[in-house]
Structures are given as C-alpha cells and as structure tokens.
Amino acid sequence: MPTLQELLARVPHVGALELILLRPARDAPMARVTSTNAEPGQGLVGDRYRGRQGGAGKRQVSLIQAEHLPLLAAWAGVEVAPEQLRRNLVVRGINLLALKTHRFRVGDVVLEGAGACAPCGKMETALGEGGFAAMRGHGGIVARVALGGTLRVGDPVQSLGPAKAATSRRGV
Fold first, then answer.
1. 108-159: per-residue pLDDT in tens?
2. Which end of the chain has less neighbouring CB within 10 Å, N or C?
3. Is 171 domain-assigned?
4. Predicted TM-score of the model (pTM)
5. Reduced to 3 states, what is the DSSP secondary structure of residue 105?
6. Residue ranges making up the domain that contains 25
C-alpha cells in the first residue's frame, strides 16, 4: 500500500490547455489568444502581472479547471464565461489542486505550483451576488514560470512531481 507522501507525489493523468487568457491592463477585458510566451520569473508576455513583485511573486500565472465552470455557474445561478474569472489558463482533464505543490509541464513550459488562487471581491460584480462564495475552493491555482517557452492552446498538461520546496510540506 503506498504511503500518503507517495500518493501526493503521483498525478498520473494528462490534461490539456483549453484556453489562454491575458489581462492587458487593470480592469481591462481578458483577451483570448492561441499562444503566448512564458518567461521564467516573470510570467506571461502580454499579461499585466508579468514582471510584478520583482519576478519573485507567486502569481505569475493563474490557472482554472474547465470542469469547474458548470459547477460555478450552477452555484452562482448564472452562465459563467472563463473571461469573467480572470484566470490565464483554462485546463481540462487533470486535477489542478493536485498540482498546487508540483512542477508541471504545459507544452514546453515548466510551471511550479505556488498555491490555491483565492477569489477576489470582483467575483460579486462578475457573477452577481454570491459569486465570491461560489468560487471559494474552486478558484484554481497560481504558479511561477520555472522554464520559459511558448504556450499553445491544445498543449498537454502533465505533472513532473513535487517541487523541491513542497516535498517537506503536508497537505492535499
């Protein structure tokens, strides 16, 4: 029987990058693109968070799981477009929460999970009353760019195992 640590280290599924969204400026509409470059320690070219916090910030890239969109819509009582949630990457077929302490590959880019992406107060405006509550626990994750390259819609998403700093952390 595998240990809990061994189970946490294993993410055998391979997902796919379904959508790339960039925030060109504060409060600007999200822009859908078919590809973008990711720069180590900086983030995504064309996104307003690129290079913020001296490159040391954990929110260089934000990701959300496509499978959660219908749940969020049901809980908020409205249709939910990915742009409303203000996340950069929408992925399908892999549990993002399992990657929050892992290094993972998206195409030729390597990201390092940096934790959960909590909803902000803007969700009340975007989704209506209760939008913030609907997003709690389903806001996706944030990550740092460990190895740069080009992200393309359709790229596979695959775990590379726990990040070194995460190997001593506990949690699910």
1. 999 999 998 877 777 877 777 877 777 788 889 999 999 999 999 999 999 9
2. N
3. no
4. 0.86
5. strand
6. 4-166
